[in-house]
Amino acid sequence: MDNDSGFARIRFDAIKTEVSLPLGWQATEDWERGVGMSGDKRFRVIVWRVDFPFEGVRDAEHYAATKTGSIKARRPGIQAQARKLKDGSFLIVYENVPASQGDGEKRVVFDLVISNPKDPKQGALLTLGVPAKDADRGLKLMALLKHNIRVDW
C-alpha cells in the first residue's frame, strides 16, 4: 500500500506481473489475466501475457499495427491509433468505442503493448477502458500504470 500516492501494489501471480492500482479498486485474476476495476466499475484494467507468434504476428510493433487495423475493420466507427513510445513499448488509443453492458456511454480504450527485452516474441498487454468523458483522466492513469508495472520475464 502506498497511501501517500493513493495506490496499492497488486501481484497477479498467474501472469507474473505487478500493477499499482488506485486505492479502493477491486482486483482479481484467473489463469491467463489480471483484472482491476474502480468501485463503480467505470474504469477497468486488464493485463495479460501475449505470445506474438501465436497471435500471428512477428513482434510488438506488428501486433500493435495488426490489432489497430483489425479493430477498425470490425467496427468502422472506432478510431484507433498506435504510437511507439521512447522505451520501445506501444500505446494504442481506441476512441468512439461503443458502450458495453453496464456502461452508460461510449468509451476510450488504451492498450499498452510491452515487449520482453529478452525475447521479442513475447510480451505483455495492459488495457485500460474508461468513459469517453474521462479520456484525459484515463490517459494520465495509463501513464501511472505504465510507470509502475513490473513484469517478471
Low-pLDDT windows of residues: none
Question: In DSSP terms, counting alpha (H) and pi (I) runs of 4 or more, how many helices?
Answer: 2
Outline, from the CA principal axes? globular
What structural class do you assign from the helix and strand content? alpha+beta
The residue fraction in helices comes out at 10-25%
Order of helices and strands: EEEEEHEEEEHE
Mean pLDDT: 95
Largest sheet: 7 strands, antiparallel
Radius of gyration: 15 Å
How much strand content do the residues show?
Answer: 35-45%
Strand order of the largest sheet: 3-4-5-9-8-7-6
- Calculate the terminal CA-CA distance, rounded to whole Å: 24 Å
Number of strands: 10
Would you mind describing this structure in some detail?
This protein has 153 residues and is α+β, with helices and mostly antiparallel strands. The protein has a domain at 47-151. Helices cover 19% and strands 44% of the residues. It is built from two helices and ten strands; from the N terminus they run E-E-E-E-E-H-E-E-E-E-H-E. It has helices at residues 60-74, 135-148, and strands at 7-12, 17-22, 26-29, 33-37, 44-51, 79-84, 90-97, 107-116, 119-131, 150-151. A seven-stranded antiparallel beta sheet has the order 3-4-5-9-8-7-6, sandwiched between helices. A hairpin with a 3-residue loop joins strand 3 and strand 4. It starts with 6 loop residues before the first strand and ends with a strand. The mean pLDDT is 95.
Q: How would you describe this structure in keywords?
A:
153 residues, alpha+beta, seven-stranded antiparallel β-sheet, three-stranded antiparallel β-sheet, 19% helix, globular
